[in-house]
């Protein structure tokens, strides 16, 4: 749409008049549009090995290096749609949107659900497990396009919490008596059960069960059998959580 008319098709009297394309955009938006046309941002670089876990407070991303800041992306993508810019440019901006999911998860989730980008919404929701939804401000929640988008997050958190409780309460330190310590089995089982029952009442969607139960290792250091059993149980929690 940015091709000007062929001068040969113009009236002879108007050949010396420069052709002007009028766009109803602000100066800042026009500058952004021109930069997209002449200096399109390349896709962000992918990590050589994708991280396998997401720890609370340490969000990870499959992308590395610099990427387009999120506040610029909604306007850029709007211009791509409005002026029907190239598909490679759209894909590049989408990859920048995905790269921002771990930094601005609520904003990316809101944008993705508004525009029907389900894959991007799912990616962003993985980074919305922490902090709890109750900590978000009214204005942050208001960015979501509909109650269904918020309801989906609530269901995700609820499912995650219930599943974590199931995993925790089903993991015994001496499963079916395997590896039981003949000397300390009773005390070790009691300590493990007390800790996991307490933790079960405090679980949030991003709780790291393995890390929370690993604190018991200090109490079992005096017995190699109990220590080994505790390490094995903690390792199983990690397998369940990050497999």
Automatic annotation (TrEMBL):
Top-rank taxon, per record: Eukaryota
* Protein name per UniProt: Uncharacterized protein
């Amino acid at each position: 749409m940015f091709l000007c008319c062929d001068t040969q098709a113009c009236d002879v009297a108007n050949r010396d008049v420069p052709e002007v394309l009028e766009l109803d955009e602000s100066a800042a938006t026009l500058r952004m549009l021109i930069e997209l046309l002449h200096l399109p941002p390349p896709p962000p670089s992918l990590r050589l090995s994708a991280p396998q876990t997401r720890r609370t407070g340490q969000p990870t991303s499959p992308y590395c290096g610099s990427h387009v800041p999120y506040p610029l992306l909604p306007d850029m993508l709007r211009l791509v749609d409005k002026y029907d810019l190239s598909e490679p440019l759209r894909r590049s901006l989408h990859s920048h949107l995905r790269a921002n999911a771990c930094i601005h998860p609520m904003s990316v989730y809101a944008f993705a659900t508004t525009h029907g980008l389900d894959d991007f919404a799912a990616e962003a929701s993985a980074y919305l497990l922490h902090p709890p939804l109750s900590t978000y401000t009214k204005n942050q929640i208001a960015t979501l396009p509909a109650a269904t988008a918020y309801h989906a997050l609530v269901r995700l958190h609820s499912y995650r919490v219930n599943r974590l409780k199931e995993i925790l309460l089903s993991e015994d330190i001496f499963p079916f008596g395997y590896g039981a310590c003949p000397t300390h089995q009773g005390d070790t089982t009691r300590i493990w059960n007390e800790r996991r029952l307490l933790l079960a009442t405090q679980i949030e969607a991003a709780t790291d069960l393995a890390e929370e139960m690993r604190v018991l290792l200090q109490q079992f250091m005096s017995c190699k059998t109990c220590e080994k059993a505790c390490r094995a149980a903690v390792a199983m929690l990690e397998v369940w959580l990050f497999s």
